[in-house]
Specification:
Blueprint lengths: L1 H18 L7 H5 L39 E2 L10 E3 L4 E4 L7 H10 L2 E6 L3 H6 L9 E4 L14 H10 L2 H16 L3 E5 L6 H13 L3 H9 L10 H15 L2 H8 L4 H11 E3 L83 E8 L5 E4 L4 E3 L7 E4 L7 E12 L2 E9 L5 E5 L3 E4 L1
Parallel strand pairs: 3-6, 4-5, 4-6
Antiparallel strand pairs: 1-3, 2-7, 8-12, 9-12, 9-15, 10-11, 12-13, 13-14
């Protein structure tokens, strides 16, 4: 009886102490992290302790009162350890709506930012416009197009469908890379939280620099340390699709984003210095002289000095003076360019100087519910009739594609049949008839 009374007294005392906030925390309190306020006007979130595999965000974080995820890419080393990204040359960030006067002073004086690239949608920009940086040009490039909605089944598919192969992303990241190359000073780029759209932009830049994939993944994951959730699986799904479709990040950047190998070399020369303490600039590549090919200077800091291989005569409507040409391999309908009725033009697989006569004999839209299995390692094209190679189907293709269009084309009088196919993530490509196996 006495023992029962003691237990009841202890229980009541425990309840009282809990109500007073005294004593050991509950399991819920121990496992729940403070919610992150998404507004930039509040006190910045202090970075959490880094996971062992992803490094310390303190090494790259730029402390600002009005942002929580502004980081300097300076110091990241190439895979061979010989070169590193210049400090104070590339800043990734979340939105700049909450910048204070001190923040603005720091970015303009210490970092000398002369170009701000805003990757948000027009509606996001209008709702929370950036605070202006004196002397810096602000450019909006929405890599998600007009809206930031997600129309896929998972975050990983969102990365593929919208950020890897979506038309606004292909065009937007093409322009983004050219702008970074053309800017002689430091560039700051950002989206809303500085993790997804900005994360992929960083993947592209660091890939071009020759930074190892593990380091790139670690940088991507560090957004978690300031309360901006990302998952490794999202980025790995992005890598998987890019590598399946193009074989390498370099090929994806070269062929899909149409940022040429020569431009990539120029960007390395602009952004890399030696790691031996001497800060020796990365050697600029010698510009090859091609007989009969006038590449000329376009006044864009080198971005326009190189023509895209085998695309000189495409009707792309590009402006060679601003270094932000739209890739020729995409249209608003998706990843692959839709066929049109072209005039005589140079293709990508014939000898220079010869004309290719192309005639579309017939076009048929397919509304079938059948799915089509593609043969592995078959060439696919940017468009049906000019046969500019875009990539290859996976070597051991197990994907099912939907057939959406058929075209009969005559090229120099020789007839051929092409099919446009689409996978479940919305990626489109043209293939010759022999590359497709169909089944119900």
């Amino acid at each position: 009886m006495q023992r029962s009374a003691i237990v009841k007294s202890l229980s009541l005392a425990s309840v009282v102490l809990s109500l007073m906030g005294v004593g050991a925390p509950s399991a819920l309190a121990a496992t729940t992290t403070p919610a992150v306020n998404q507004t930039a006007s509040t006190v910045p979130v202090k970075p959490t302790t880094p996971p062992a595999n992803y490094g310390d965000i303190h090494k790259t974080l730029v402390p600002l009162a009005g942002t929580v995820n502004t980081r300097d890419l300076g110091g990241y080393t190439t895979a061979d350890g010989k070169w590193q990204v210049r400090s104070h040359s590339l800043l990734r960030s979340d939105q700049l709506v909450g910048l204070t006067a001190e923040d603005i002073q720091k970015l303009t004086t210490d970092f000398k930012i002369t170009s701000v690239i805003d990757l948000r949608t027009p509606g996001q920009v209008k709702g929370k416009p950036d605070k202006a940086l004196p002397g810096a040009k602000n450019t909006n490039i929405s890599v998600l197009g007009p809206h930031a909605y997600t129309d896929s089944g998972s975050d990983g598919e969102f990365y593929n469908q919208r950020l890897a192969f979506g038309h606004p992303a292909v065009v937007g990241y093409h322009k983004f890379l050219n702008m970074v190359l053309a800017n002689p000073q430091a560039t700051l780029y950002h989206c809303t939280s500085g993790k997804d759209r900005t994360g992929i932009a960083t993947v592209l830049l660091l890939s071009i620099m020759g930074v190892s994939r593990n380091t790139i993944i670690a940088d991507y994951m560090q957004s978690n340390q300031v309360g901006k959730k990302v998952e490794r699986a999202w980025l790995m799904e992005y890598y998987k699709e890019v590598l399946q479709n193009y074989g390498s990040m370099e090929a994806y950047i070269t062929e899909c984003l149409e940022f040429s190998p020569a431009q990539q070399e120029q960007l390395r020369a602009k952004l890399l210095v030696s790691t031996d303490g001497k800060n020796t600039p990365y050697p600029a590549a010698q510009k090859p002289v091609v007989p009969g090919n006038n590449t000329g200077n376009s006044g864009n800091g080198g971005a326009g000095n190189v023509t895209n291989d085998n695309h000189q005569n495409d009707n792309s409507g590009t402006n060679q003076n601003d270094g932000t040409n739209t890739p020729n391999n995409v249209t608003s309908g998706g990843q692959a360019a839709q066929p049109s009725k072209p005039t005589n033009t140079n293709g990508g697989t014939h000898k220079p100087g010869k004309k290719k006569v192309v005639k579309i004999v017939s076009t048929k839209k397919m509304r079938t519910t059948y799915k089509y299995r593609l043969k592995g390692n078959k060439v696919w094209f940017k468009d049906a009739h000019l046969q500019k190679t875009k990539g290859h189907t996976p070597k051991h293709s197990k994907k099912k594609w939907q057939l959406i269009k058929q075209e009969k084309v005559k090229i120099n009088g020789k007839a051929a049949t092409y099919f446009q196919v689409k996978d479940r993530a919305g990626h489109k490509a043209w293939l010759v008839k022999s590359a497709i196996l169909n089944f119900k």
